[in-house]
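Here is one chain, start to finish.
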Amino acid sequence: MDTREHIKSAKRIVVKVGTSTLLYDSGKLNLYRIEQLVRELADLSSQGKEVILVSSGAIGAGVVRMGLAKRPAGVKEKQALAAVGQGMLMHIYDKLFAEYGQVAGQVLLTRDNYVQHKQYNNSRNTLLTMLKMGVVPIINENDAVAVDEVKIGDNDNLSAMVAALVDADVLLILSDIDGVYTSNPAKDPDATLIHEIAEITPQIEQIAGGAGSDMGTGGMSTKIEAAKIATASGVTMCIASGAEKDIIRRIVAGEQMGTVFPPKEAHLKARKSWLAFGKRINGDIVVDEGCVKALKAGSSLLAAGIKHSEGEYNKDDTVRVLTQEYQEIARGVVNFDAGIVQKIKGRKTEEFKALLTEDAPAEVIHRDNMVLMI
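Its structure:
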């Protein structure tokens, strides 16, 4: 099925809206755009579609509520403002959704809700139950209490994790740019919009390397990371401008707006999704071309195909597996510390006994604990 046609038939839709979409350049809340957003989502819900909103803007709303001239730099101050702003933002959403005959409910998440498998399942069950009851979940990271160790980091990745968590059909990320361009449109007048990206190559990652709006935390690079998560989980993703009139309705109607990323053919099971995206990435393992072919064919990652590793990861951490051109092809739970991987790289399994002081598994990453990203 054509990607745009797939979007038209979507039943479960996650929409992420960024801070720059919710606020004016002055830092004040853009109530017109918020109302327009809610109206479109409520209309989708009225059509029988299941809708989840992942909303940024809590800290920005807190800045407005407290009458501050600018966003503070300190972590404690940001967390305090998030506590103030989250309540203010939720009050606005609740009031507007109610006016359109819909019930909204707030859900605050941290990385712990993904790292702990029990919490992962609990979060999934809660969201699916809310959808079954006809409630529109409004999700944000719990910025008021989250510290770096448990922060997901940005709402682009949060929205992709949510889309994977609930087996969404489509993830729509609304931003201050209308998609991925061949180069930076602010600097290159010849830059053109890429309407569809079937594979996230190193070239695409290079194009997306620049930062986005200074109002938010997620630039285009985080949106590409989100696309990896979404598409590997069987979710179609679209990046589009939140400033466009009726943008959600037009995309869901199949109009060629923004940049779409078609999903991978195989959907991840819930456990695989948790393994791939629940845990923080702690390092990289670079492999040779023969290993890439073996992984694509369903093999575990063996030491013989490893060229080198990067990062100080430990046994049972999640790492990325990269080609020699640094394209991510897989991620999974590693069976060895980084130091041992460095020691056994390029070696055959039967050579392990001479290199290691204790019995070791044959695989660096077992295929059951690994997810292909291509």
